Amino acid sequence: MTLIISPITSIPDVKPGDHVAQLLIRGLTAQHISLIDNDILVVTQKIISKSENRYVDLSTVIPSEKAFEIAITSEKCPELIELILQESKKILRMTPQTIITEHNLGFISANSGIDHSNVGRNEKTGENWVLLLPNDPDASANNIREFVKMELGANIGVMIIDSHGRAWRYGTVGTMIGTAGVPAIVDLRGKKDLYGYQLKITRVAAADELAGTASLIMGQANEKIPAVHVRGFPYPLRCSSLKEVIRPEEEDLFR
Question: What's the whole-model pTM score?
Answer without folding.
Answer: 0.92
